[in-house]
C-alpha cells in the first residue's frame, strides 16, 4: 500500500480528542477531516473554540466526554503552554494506558506530561506551524519510549495530514525547531512587512508596496518549493554581478550588521524562551 493510503487507513478509525480548538488545533482538525478522519470520531474540548465542523462533538470541559467515552486513541493537547498544568489533571484517567498524549505546545516537556498523566503514558511532543492551515505545515515530533510503532504511525498520519513531518530522538532539539519552523512563519511575515515599508520609504504608494512585497515573498516561497536548486543557488540566480541585488545583499549579508547575525540572535531568543516555557 502506498504511504498516503497507509495514512488514510490509519486515520479512518482513529478517535481523537482535541483539547484546545484554537488557531493551531483548528488548523490540524481541518487537515484531519480532509484526510479521512471521521467527524464523529473527533471531540473538541474547548470553552471557546474556533470553527466547529459539522458532525464533530464539542464539549466545554472534559467531564461529559470522560463520562460518556469511548476513550480516545489520541489526546491532542493544543492549549497555551502557560495553562497546560491546569488543564492536564482532568485527563489523568486516560494516562498509563493506550491513549497517546500528543502535544503541540511550545516548551512543554515530555517529562511534564508523564508527571501529570502517569509515568507509563505514551507521549508525543511536537511543534507544527501555521502554514498547516493551508496543508503546508512543517512539524517536528519526538516520542517517549511508551509510544508503540502503531501509535507513532497514527501520530505521523495526524501531523502529516497538514504538511511535512520529521521525527527526532533527542527532545532537546525541539527548542531550536520551535525557534526555526514553529515561530518562523512570523519572521517571514515580518520580512514582508519590512519590505513593504522600505518600498514606501523608497517612494512607492503604500498599497503597491504592500502588494509587491507580499507577491514577492509568496512567489519566492513557491519557487523554492518547486525548484530543484537550493536557496543559495536561487539567490545567486537573482544576483547579477555589480547589479541592484548585489548592492542590497552587501547590506543584508554583512557579517556584523546583516540579516545573518540578526537571525542568529532571533532564533537563540526564541529557543531560550522555549526552554523557559518548560516551567
Ligand atoms: N500559533 C502557532 O503558530 C503555533 C502554536 N503552537 C502551540 O499551539 C498551542 C495553541 O496555540 P494557538 O492555537 O496559537 O492558541 P489559541 O489561543 O488560538 O488556541 C488555544 C485554544 O485553547 C482554548 N482553551 C483555553 N482554555 C482551555 C481549557 N481549559 N481546555 C480546553 N481548551 C482551552 C481556547 O479557547 C483556544 O481556543 C500552544 O501551546 C502553542 O505553543 C505550536 C506551534 C505553532
Ligand atoms: O509563539 C509561540 O509561543 C508559539 C509557538 C511557536 C509559534 N507560536
Automatic annotation (TrEMBL):
One of its GO terms (cellular component) is cytoplasm. Pathway: Amino-acid biosynthesis; L-proline biosynthesis; L-proline from L-glutamate 5-semialdehyde: step 1/1. It comes from the Bacteria. It is found in: Cytoplasm. Keywords: Amino-acid biosynthesis, Cytoplasm, NADP, Oxidoreductase, Proline biosynthesis. Its EC number is 1.5.1.2. It catalyses: L-proline + NAD(+) = (S)-1-pyrroline-5-carboxylate + NADH + 2 H(+); L-proline + NADP(+) = (S)-1-pyrroline-5-carboxylate + NADPH + 2 H(+). GO terms for molecular function: pyrroline-5-carboxylate reductase activity. It is an enzyme of class 1 (oxidoreductase). Residues 171-277 form the Pyrroline-5-carboxylate reductase dimerisation domain. The keyword Cytoplasm applies. InterPro entries: 6-PGluconate_DH-like_C_sf, NAD(P)-bd_dom_sf, P5C_Rdtase_cat_N, P5CR_dimer, Pyrroline-COOH_reductase. One of its GO terms (biological process) is L-proline biosynthetic process. Its main location: cytoplasm. Pfam families: F420_oxidored, P5CR_dimer. NADP(+) binds at residues 78-81. Residues 18-96 form the Pyrroline-5-carboxylate reductase catalytic N-terminal domain. Catalyzes the reduction of 1-pyrroline-5-carboxylate (PCA) to L-proline. Belongs to the pyrroline-5-carboxylate reductase family. NCBIfam families: proC. This is Pyrroline-5-carboxylate reductase. The lineage of its organism: Bacteria, Pseudomonadati, Pseudomonadota, Alphaproteobacteria, Rhodospirillales.
